[in-house]
Amino acid sequence: MDTASFDKLLSKFKVSVVKFDVAYPYGDKHEEYAKFSLAAAEVEDLFVGEVGIKDYGDKDNTDLAERFKVKKEDFPVVILFKVFDNGKIAEKHRFDGDFKADNIKTFIRQKSGIYLPRPGCVEEFDNLADRLMTLTDSGSKGKIIVEAETIKEKLNEDKAKKAEIYIKIMHKVVSEGEKFIDKETERVTKLLDGKVSESKKKQLEKRINILKSFARQKSKDEL
């Protein structure tokens, strides 16, 4: 994407995600964005793009960097754009979390409602996890758990097993607070780093993915 095509492309989609970076990016963060882009390729309502910015020569796209307050020392910067029906930008949300593909997916879901699945996750329960983590009183959180139990009863055996993991985590969040998510993620990560069978490894990786569904991805919101 460049200055000439930026607004034209964004106006065609309700939601766009754009990475602002050096003109020829490389490294772990670039690879993580590539993973995210591949996972998002089949989602019709989401446009994923990249803007290469040069601070030398013709200084390509530096006007876009200035427009969205993107600084070179912050590269890469990922911003989600939501657009009005008339094609004008309605909202901007700047990703400010750990730069991993799965975290970007969660950020997209939380800020736009567009679902990008991860292995082991269930869309209905990811949405319930989002709602649970935005509530502050235990009564309202309890209602979410009751709703989750009701939905689980209508699922097939495979999804019901996954749903049970969500529900157990929900109970822990209510009893121990949000700190449980970090504590449990650390515990499961340590198990993954040890000697486990391939089947156990896949099981633990799916649990990590479900835990990520409860993590609120940080962003810098701008209107």
Short description:
The protein has nine helices and five strands, in the order αβαβαββααααααβ.
Architecture blueprint of SSEs:
Layout: H1 6-10, E1 15-22, H2 28-40, E2 46-53, H3 62-67, E3 77-83, E4 89-95, H4 101-112, H5 123-134, H6 138-152, H7 157-176, H8 179-193, H9 198-214, E5 219-222
Helix pairs in contact: 2-4, 5-6, 6-7, 8-9
Distance between the termini: 23 Å
Kindly provide the name of the CATH class of the largest domain: Alpha Beta
**Mean pLDDT rating:** 93
Helix and strand content put the structural class at: alpha+beta
Task: Give structural notes.
It contains nine helices and five strands, in the order αβαβαββααααααβ. The protein is an alpha+beta fold and 223 residues long. The chain folds into two domains: 6-116, Glutaredoxin (3-Layer(aba) Sandwich), CATH 3.40.30.10; 123-214, Endoplasmic reticulum protein erp29 (Up-down Bundle), CATH 1.20.1150.12. The protein has a five-stranded mixed sheet with strand order 2-1-3-4-5. β3 (77-83) and β4 (89-95) form a beta hairpin. α5 (123-134) packs antiparallel against α6. The longest helix has 20 residues, at 157-176. The model has no long low-confidence stretch (mean pLDDT 93).
Descriptors for this entry?
single chain; 223 residues; alpha+beta; Glutaredoxin; Endoplasmic reticulum protein erp29; 2 domains
